[in-house]
Amino acid sequence: MTRNAKGQSATATITQPRKHHPVADNAVSPRHGRSWLRSFLAATPCFLAPLTSICVFIALSEYEGSFALLAAAVKQEGFWTICTRYGPEITAKGVLAVVCWVGLQAVLFRYLPGAIQTGQYTPAGYLLSYRMNGLSAWILTHVLYGLLSWYGLLDPGFIPRNWSSLIGAMNLAGFCISALSFVKAYVKPTHPEDRKFSGALSRLYEISASWLTRTIGSSLYDFYMGIELNPRLGDNFDLKLFSNGRPGMIAWTLIDISNMAYQYQTQQRVEPSLILLTILQGLYVLDFFVNESWYLRTIDIAHDHYGFYLAWGCFCFLPTTYTIQGQYLGLYPQSPSTTYLAVFFATGLAGYALFRSANSQKDRVRRSNGRCLIWGQPASYIAGSYTTSDGKQHTSLLLCSGWWGWSRHANYVGDLVLSYSSCALVGSSHAVVWIYAAWMTMLLVHRCMRDEKRCADKYGAAWAEYCGRVPWRFVRGNPSPSIGAPATGPTAPRRVTSRSAPSQHTRHPINPAANVLKLPATPPLAALFFAGASETSPPPFPLSHSESSGSSEWLAHNQSRFTFCPPMDRHAQAVADIADAVRGFFKLGQAYRVFHGSSNSTRPRHGSGQNVVDISMLASVISVDVKRQTCLVEPNVPMDRLVEATMVHGLVPPVVMEFPGITAGGGFSGTSGESSSFRHGFFNETINWVEMVLGNGDVVRASSQERADLFHGAAGAAGTLGITTLMELRLVEAKKFVKTTYRRVNSTAEAISEIQDEIENPHVDYVDGILYSNDHGVIVTGELTNVKPEEYPPRTFSHASDPWFYLHVQEKTKCLPSFSTFTEYVPLGEYLFRYDRAGFWVGRQGYTYFKLVPFNKFFRWLLDDYSHTRTLYHALHASRISSQFVVQDLGLPYDTAEPFINWVDQELGIWPLWLCPLKGCSTPTFHPVAESKDSPEENGEKQGSSTPGMSQPMLNIGVWGWGPEDHQEFVAKNRGLEDKLRELGGRKWLYAHTYYPEEEFWSIYDHSWYQALRKRYFATTLPTVYDKVKVDIQAKWKNREQWGSSWLSTWPIGGLYGMFLAAMSGDIGLHRQAKWRYKLE
């Protein structure tokens, strides 16, 4: 007798179970089955599993993935201290994120349409139906993730940045879901007949006793292994399928992608190893959802009851353990050789092919009732019969040909090959990287044993015959007898039709361990498990402070690790940590790389080692002193945040770089001259003093009165004399608007002459110019003012509907006669960052690159997110287009500027050109300078001589445009530009490609002066300026021939890849949040 139960979205065919007599009371007595032992065995994983996830997290985030370093720290400080200090945290942000994630997946699981499939009969005779919408949910989730990232509503690197709090929340979710399912099994079970209690002899035991009687046996064991087989919320929300196949599985690929985004955000590139790993694991996850109906016949769904083992495993263990490889690469980027990656990627694909092929063969036999070909031959199989608890007999087919004639668990072999290959792609020997593969080995070996025991019980003689025909469990070799069935000799093939094959395969998800942005104000998760753990403990290794810094200082430094710190206290703590790291590398004589978190350099990046000093946390405006008109600024503060912090006090930096993402530290360590530099000089000349960590770890202050040689030498030295950690910046009065005047000129000579006249005007605050061609130029001047005539509407340039500044100026002046003017009033913030959209005019070249995208107002509006300089820089680095693009700023004396512009026109044909007048600066220096007035040429002294002097005012010329497509010709043109520049008495800015041979480079820049500074301030272990700015032509050419660079150089792959990573960078929507933007009415 059967009955149909219809829900809102699924129909379950339920077979009335057979009646069973109650089991005698003594069968469930506390003595039965040694309940104390079961309780102990069940409690152990409930305790150790979260603890293990905590240990893995700490090893990854704090000890470079090394269990040896973690063990050494534990031995010195104690296990609970390390867990308390570095363990995951439970925060409101993490809990909210997990709740929103699970809620989103629950809504998609419940309401997305999908085909209805039935699972296997339960022991009580239920045949449940399921809606297969996992693929739709996976696609929709990833599209939503992409859209939120695209529009700046979600940081694509959110997961690794908040991994600590997410792990805490996932652990909490695992326990909560486990407890919910445990209580539900007693209070409102879905199918009471399918429950299993540790104290009962039968699954069909009918419970009618009291609550106390119901828990006879081992409640801990029931909590761990689960009571209900298929718990449902309502008629059709299957809790087990949802847990096993939604939050964790979908999160797997999302975590990998987020790790890619994080690696790009922190390293400005994504290593091929992480890309290939994401592809391999993404293929596995996608296969899971494409073949989701197959999952209904696996052990997880058909046989395992739903308790802590599945609930915590799917909500926490899967997303934290299966993704360890991606987490490791997100934190410690590395990429083995191309050959190594190719071998293991191909091996992984082969493993997946074996896995998919084996499962497909079995599914094909089941669907065709055995009437199909396997490897070109008719399928060979054995018919096995079994009886369900409702008394009905069923038949399944045991496939004996294809992969299933090769071994009894060929699909497990493919799974293992794929697992080990994905771990090998990381290229690390650290044990933590291989946890996934080790877990899969244990899991699949255990499942193999369970499979064979269950099949032996289910099919009896048919299984024994199958084992005789296929005696190998995993690979061919010595025969492996089946568990629970004797091995028999081969028998004649039998071809039978089949409706269902045994569950000889499985599926699993994967997890992550990524970067962690700690939120110290919240208690670590481990503290909830182990009360009384100290928040402050001695350091894990011998202190490396100088003699004046003892352990008491270390304790004082760490006293506020988990409490709120005032800005300067927080800064002091961060600088002390940075100094410790630098001191350690100095004592070991090891080189290291400084990680800032962003870059506005257009130079190609060189490979990085594992020694990294992270200063990305130094990104705050500490204070603004309105009375003194100064502010304390950390080095990673970008210009837009600096302007926003000072404008609220009616102040603004006198020199503001035109790109919002350029940082204060970059302005000091690099060269930054802007349209106000004709009056105030380079950005570093507006700084009163800087705090630096020297190469030996000492923290010092440098100014024009204290360590003046270091203060002057470090400016423009690309961070090669020490790490800048703080600076005091002078400010000037800010005003509401900039009265902006565009003056038309008809020749290069007129433009240069007009600029020289304007810089003498005491009322002018900003001067620059644009040369559109030989006969069309515009000189732009700006005057700060609080008064705007009513007939002049505010002119803005930051909104998507606004024109690009250079196009606007061109349009307004194209019909003006020579020396005629056009005036507008531009809000101050809009003026300071007027060149942000299009990166002056570099953004125009993106349309040239893609060719098919029209360059018109509509598409500039549509693609506005990609026109801002933060995004442009990401795309430039990621796509390798910088190797085809001339991006040079050159400083020349006024009297040689016109011949140089003519040379650029003839040799490169690049227009427009930017003109920016610069005040002279002190020499020697790495800044661009013209010949010193105090060091006449007739004295035979070169530019930048060790003799102090002052360079003459000069004109910066910005040359930005496409170069020759042929790489060798591209290099030759750049070398020609460098030669011409030197001939005309100029010098280039070192942020861009530099092709000088080393000997020639040091003939331009004063080597003896620089080396003396390096020795005096312990910087000899740091790279030199030349090391940082050079282009290794031979290595670059060799790299172009490798697969990673060659395909990125292929149109349009490089451009599309750059756009993708720019969207993943997390910066693509920052301009919408800018407070300096003028609000349109």
TrEMBL record:
Protein's UniProt keywords contain Transferase = no
Give every FAD-binding PCMH-type domain span: 557-734
Q: Which GO terms describe its cellular component?
A: cytoplasm; membrane
On the tree of life, the source organism's domain of life is Eukaryota
Pfam families to which the protein is assigned, alphabetical: ERG4_ERG24 (PF01222), FAD_binding_4 (PF01565)
Stretches of Polar residues bias are at: 1-16, 942-952
Q: Which GO terms describe its biological process?
A: sterol biosynthetic process
- Subcellular locations according to the entry: Membrane
Which UniProt keywords are present, listed alphabetically?
Membrane, Transmembrane, Transmembrane helix
What segments bear the compositional bias annotation Basic and acidic residues? 930-941
Name it: Delta(24)-sterol reductase
Give the taxonomic lineage as stored in the record.
Answer: Eukaryota, Fungi, Dikarya, Ascomycota, Pezizomycotina
